[in-house]
């Protein structure tokens, strides 16, 4: 016998997961390179102490686990994961399971899975979303890796996951790094959702000149409609908050420089690598970069004064902004799901997009009511772009006029709305059967002899009339 699972890395997320698992009746060994951390998790465990076993050394940690051993790592992404794997490896036996539950880059997870598989260890990359509270009370869990290993650990993950109705928000999505890819795209979509909400808040407060409290009430109202989601809900609370130190509205004392740990950026990079259009997510990442350059923005304001004119109520209404947000959200999720699909194709994974939408329905940061309809649309038309499914196509045809109105008003008033504009640009391109890329192809051929395809003949490598001209010029030179 022995304990069911061991957890290495007892920061906020690791500690909270340990308590969650112990609470569900599993026996958990906990170890951290800093022994104080194991003791403080134990000290906070109350009635769960009988299931929680802090261990002082790595060898005792390994000895405390039943076979096949299950070890879950919750350490920062990158080199710290490799460092722990190097420490662990000599202690493990063939068939043991190692789970990386951090926000690792899925390419790293693919490599680690291959290396560990070669020596008979079963490796899993598991995306866990929901922050500290989620880890403690019920996260969404996107598992990737060895399917047998998943069957072995499934009872633990299903027990600790958030629930939507009776269903646990936890599932195996594919092999190797599939879970971490899905988690990265979750975070990319999280960036886009946050950006779209921030842009809407700019239109409310700077455009329509609503106060913070009134804007908070608008978000609260939206949270009772189609936009119902965790991020809208917390935004409504944030807008009503006061800074305890100064008594000012909290938002007035928070510096406007967005930080990031990297997962949203990885999503945008992956979209570029795979050639998947994901402009709303990229716009959200880009905005964070520019926001984090306050000196440039300050200088810009000095040089190009006059930004942010007020919008008039006739230009747009609160209902227009709500509808524009709905359209932006549908388009950014369309891009995110397409990215998951194409990354899955590229890696040979069979990811069920409807199941991903269901995992995200509760526990994670992007949980929202709209994910219900997304799960149905993706299940009903597999392989079809989300926004072209009957339901969302209808939603978009209703909301795009408002998005267009909001974009026009934002542009006229000089309010930056990059994610909303990226969504509109994507929509307009994606429904143009003959676009302006013929000009690009002609230019490429003109300066680089790259050739083009013709509308009236099959085949590639056709040249424009300038091909002869260029030969002549070169010949006489
Ligand atoms: C989650 C969050 C979580 C975390 C991000 C924040 O799903 O629980 O996405 O992973 O809050 O790391 O990301 P940034 O620091 O990049 O904004």
Automatic annotation (TrEMBL):
<comment type="pathway">
    <text>Carbohydrate degradation; pentose phosphate pathway; D-ribulose 5-phosphate from D-glucose 6-phosphate (oxidative stage): step 3/3.</text>
</comment>
<dbReference type="InterPro" id="IPR006184">
    <property type="entry name" value="6PGdom_BS"/>
</dbReference>
<dbReference type="InterPro" id="IPR006114">
    <property type="entry name" value="6PGDH_C"/>
</dbReference>
<dbReference type="InterPro" id="IPR013328">
    <property type="entry name" value="6PGD_dom2"/>
</dbReference>
<keyword id="KW-0521">NADP</keyword>
<feature type="binding site">
    <location>
        <position position="450"/>
    </location>
    <ligand>
        <name>substrate</name>
    </ligand>
</feature>
<feature type="active site" description="Proton acceptor">
    <location>
        <position position="183"/>
    </location>
</feature>
<dbReference type="GO" id="GO:0050661">
    <property type="term" value="F:NADP binding"/>
</dbReference>
<dbReference type="InterPro" id="IPR006113">
    <property type="entry name" value="6PGDH_Gnd/GntZ"/>
</dbReference>
<feature type="binding site">
    <location>
        <position position="444"/>
    </location>
    <ligand>
        <name>substrate</name>
    </ligand>
</feature>
<feature type="binding site" description="in other chain">
    <location>
        <begin position="186"/>
        <end position="187"/>
    </location>
    <ligand>
        <name>substrate</name>
    </ligand>
</feature>
<feature type="binding site" description="in other chain">
    <location>
        <position position="288"/>
    </location>
    <ligand>
        <name>substrate</name>
    </ligand>
</feature>
<dbReference type="InterPro" id="IPR008927">
    <property type="entry name" value="6-PGluconate_DH-like_C_sf"/>
</dbReference>
<dbReference type="GO" id="GO:0019521">
    <property type="term" value="P:D-gluconate metabolic process"/>
</dbReference>
<feature type="binding site" description="in other chain">
    <location>
        <position position="261"/>
    </location>
    <ligand>
        <name>substrate</name>
    </ligand>
</feature>
<comment type="similarity">
    <text>Belongs to the 6-phosphogluconate dehydrogenase family.</text>
</comment>
<protein>
    <recommendedName>
        <fullName>6-phosphogluconate dehydrogenase, decarboxylating</fullName>
        <ecNumber>1.1.1.44</ecNumber>
    </recommendedName>
</protein>
<comment type="function">
    <text>Catalyzes the oxidative decarboxylation of 6-phosphogluconate to ribulose 5-phosphate and CO(2), with concomitant reduction of NADP to NADPH.</text>
</comment>
<dbReference type="InterPro" id="IPR006183">
    <property type="entry name" value="Pgluconate_DH"/>
</dbReference>
<dbReference type="GO" id="GO:0006098">
    <property type="term" value="P:pentose-phosphate shunt"/>
</dbReference>
<feature type="domain" description="6-phosphogluconate dehydrogenase C-terminal">
    <location>
        <begin position="179"/>
        <end position="467"/>
    </location>
</feature>
<dbReference type="InterPro" id="IPR006115">
    <property type="entry name" value="6PGDH_NADP-bd"/>
</dbReference>
<feature type="binding site" description="in other chain">
    <location>
        <position position="191"/>
    </location>
    <ligand>
        <name>substrate</name>
    </ligand>
</feature>
<feature type="active site" description="Proton donor">
    <location>
        <position position="190"/>
    </location>
</feature>
<dbReference type="InterPro" id="IPR036291">
    <property type="entry name" value="NAD(P)-bd_dom_sf"/>
</dbReference>
<comment type="subunit">
    <text>Homodimer.</text>
</comment>
<keyword id="KW-0560">Oxidoreductase</keyword>
<dbReference type="Pfam" id="PF03446">
    <property type="entry name" value="NAD_binding_2"/>
</dbReference>
<keyword id="KW-0311">Gluconate utilization</keyword>
<dbReference type="Pfam" id="PF00393">
    <property type="entry name" value="6PGD"/>
</dbReference>
<feature type="binding site" description="in other chain">
    <location>
        <begin position="129"/>
        <end position="131"/>
    </location>
    <ligand>
        <name>substrate</name>
    </ligand>
</feature>
<feature type="binding site" description="in other chain">
    <location>
        <position position="103"/>
    </location>
    <ligand>
        <name>substrate</name>
    </ligand>
</feature>
<dbReference type="GO" id="GO:0004616">
    <property type="term" value="F:phosphogluconate dehydrogenase (decarboxylating) activity"/>
</dbReference>
<keyword id="KW-0570">Pentose shunt</keyword>
């Amino acid at each position: 016998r022995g304990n069911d699972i061991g957890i290495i890395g007892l920061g906020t997320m690791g500690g909270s997961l340990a308590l969650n698992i112990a609470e569900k009746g599993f026996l958990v060994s906990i170890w951290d390179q800093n022994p104080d951390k194991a003791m403080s998790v134990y000290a906070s465990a109350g009635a769960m102490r009988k299931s929680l076993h802090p261990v002082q050394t790595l060898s005792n940690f390994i000895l405390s686990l039943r076979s096949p051993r299950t070890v879950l790592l919750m350490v920062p992404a990158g080199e710290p994961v490799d460092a722990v794997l190097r420490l662990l490896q000599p202690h493990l036996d063939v068939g043991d399971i190692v789970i990386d539950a951090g926000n690792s880059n899925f390419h790293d997870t693919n490599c680690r899975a291959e290396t560990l598989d070669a020596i008979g260890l079963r490796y899993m990359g598991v995306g866990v979303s929901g922050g500290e509270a989620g880890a403690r009370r019920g996260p969404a869990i996107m598992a990737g890796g060895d399917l047998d290993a998943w069957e072995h650990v499934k009872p633990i993950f299903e027990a600790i996951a958030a629930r939507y109705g009776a269903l646990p928000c936890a599932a195996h999505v594919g092999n190797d790094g599939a879970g971490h890819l899905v988690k990265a795209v979750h975070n990319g979509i999280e960036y886009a959702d946050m950006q779209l909400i921030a842009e809407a808040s700019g239109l409310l407060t700077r455009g329509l000149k609503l106060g913070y409290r009134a804007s908070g009430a608008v978000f609260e109202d939206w949270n009772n409609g189609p936009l119902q989601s965790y991020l809208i809900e917390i935004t409504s609370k944030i807008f009503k908050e006061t800074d305890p130190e100064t008594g000012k509205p909290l938002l007035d004392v928070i510096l406007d420089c967005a930080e990031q740990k990297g997962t949203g950026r990885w999503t945008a990079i992956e979209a570029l690598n795979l050639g998947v259009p994901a402009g709303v997510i990229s716009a959200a990442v880009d905005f964070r970069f520019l926001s984090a350059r306050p000196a440039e923005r300050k200088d810009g304001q000095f040089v190009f004064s006059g930004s942010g004119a007020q919008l008039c109520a006739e230009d747009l209404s609160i209902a227009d902004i709500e509808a524009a947000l709905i359209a932006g959200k549908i388009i950014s999720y369309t891009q995110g799901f397409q990215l998951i699909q194409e990354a899955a194709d590229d890696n040979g994974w069979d990811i069920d997009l409807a199941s991903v939408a269901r995992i995200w329905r509760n526990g994670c940061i992007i949980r929202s009511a709209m994910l219900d309809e997304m799960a149905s649309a993706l299940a009903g038309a597999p392989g079809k772009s989300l926004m072209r499914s009957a339901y969302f196509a209808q939603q978009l045809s209703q909301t795009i006029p408002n998005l267009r109105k909001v974009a026009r008003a934002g542009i006229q008033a000089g309010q930056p709305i990059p994610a909303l504009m990226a969504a509109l640009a994507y929509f307009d391109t994606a429904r143009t059967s003959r676009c302006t890329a013929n000009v690009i192809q002609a230019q490429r051929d003109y300066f680089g002899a790259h050739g083009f395809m013709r509308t009236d003949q099959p085949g590639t490598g056709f040249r424009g009339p300038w091909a002869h001209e260029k030969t002549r010029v070169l010949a006489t030179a």
